[in-house]
């Protein structure tokens, strides 16, 4: 006879994704395979403004100047260097910067480098980024006039352009290979090569071509 005090499977999964069980989804691979995309778990901790507050125009990808960012690791070790990545949503223009580690300080230094080297040339209206601890102080970038929004945990599909670009980067930096094997210039060069690749989504034009065209339009105004 069935014990009515035993919760059903659906209830257990709901408790898991709500953070009410003493385990995480990553400890239960079966839970990750059951997770439905498009229904992110409500986070109890956000580094800043939620993606839910982001203007609807950003999702449409019709306006230039909206970006997505993340970090990429070679080896998953605390003392390992990493690569900070950021991509413009409309043109797919992609930038990569080698940082000392997957830390808030490393990410902040990368953004300061971008603003210092390019100034307003990047036209960064908004950035949608991961909610990891390395982005804990990322909201400080709003001092530069950029609005920052954070995706929900375990919701990489909320930054699809960045995720696709990072997968291309893996052709140059395979998983498991230390970032120590690459120089700062090499990491930058990888993004140059990626930006020179024609894309079907861009009618077989390159991100570099489109990005420069939009900048030219801005400077003519």
From TrEMBL:
GO biological process: DNA integration; transposition
InterPro entries membership: Integrase_cat-core (IPR001584), RNaseH-like_sf (IPR012337), RNaseH_sf (IPR036397), Transposase-Integrase (IPR051917), Transposase_IS30-like (IPR053392)
GO MF annotations in UniProt: nucleic acid binding; transposase activity
Origin: domain of life: Bacteria
Domain Integrase catalytic residues, every copy: 51-215
Pfam family, one: rve
GO CC annotation, single: cytosol
PANTHER family with a match to the protein in the record: TRANSPOSASE, TRANSPOSASE INSI FOR INSERTION SEQUENCE ELEMENT IS30A-RELATED
Protein name (record): IS30 family transposase
Lineage: Bacteria, Bacillati, Bacillota, Clostridia, Eubacteriales
């Amino acid at each position: 006879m069935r014990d009515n005090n035993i919760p059903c499977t659906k209830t257990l999964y709901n408790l898991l994704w709500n953070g009410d069980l003493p385990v995480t989804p990553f400890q239960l691979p079966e839970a990750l395979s059951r997770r439905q995309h498009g229904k992110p778990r409500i986070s109890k901790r956000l580094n800043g403004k939620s993606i839910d507050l982001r203007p609807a125009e950003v999702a449409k990808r019709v306006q230039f100047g909206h970006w997505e960012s993340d970090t990429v690791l070679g080896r998953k070790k605390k003392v390992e260097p990493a690569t900070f990545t950021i991509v413009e949503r409309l043109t797919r223009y992609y930038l990569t910067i080698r940082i000392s580690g997957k830390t808030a300080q490393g990410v902040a230094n990368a953004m300061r480098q971008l603003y210092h080297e390019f100034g307003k040339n990047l036209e960064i209206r908004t950035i949608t980024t991961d909610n990891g601890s390395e982005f804990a102080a990322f909201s400080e970038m709003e001092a530069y006039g950029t609005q920052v929004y954070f995706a929900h945990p375990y919701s990489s599909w909320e930054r699809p352009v960045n995720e696709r670009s990072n997968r291309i980067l893996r052709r140059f930096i395979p998983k498991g290979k230390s970032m120590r094997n690459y120089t700062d210039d090499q990491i930058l060069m990888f993004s140059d090569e990626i930006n020179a690749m024609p894309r079907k989504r861009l009618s077989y034009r390159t991100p570099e071509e489109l990005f420069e065209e939009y900048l030219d339009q801005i400077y003519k105004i």
